[in-house]
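Appendix C: a fully annotated inverse folding record. The material below is reproduced so that readers can follow the format used throughout the book. The structure is listed first as tokens, followed by the designed sequence.
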């Protein structure tokens, strides 16, 4: 399992850094803290993407 920075996840998802912080703040994307550093694991990213796939289409 890998752990990514907010910037790396933003690049992976093709969104801005602020969007990743928003997703973290609202609980849509989980993360861990290592000291003062926030890291998002590959499992967290996979869970977030799976939650998008299970949302009802509008």
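Designed amino acids, in order:
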């Amino acid at each position: 399992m890998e752990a990514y920075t907010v910037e790396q996840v933003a690049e992976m998802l093709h969104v801005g850094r602020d969007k990743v912080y928003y997703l973290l703040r609202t609980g849509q994307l989980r993360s861990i803290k290592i000291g003062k550093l926030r890291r998002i694991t590959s499992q967290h990213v996979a869970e977030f993407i799976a939650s998008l796939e299970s949302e009802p289409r509008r």
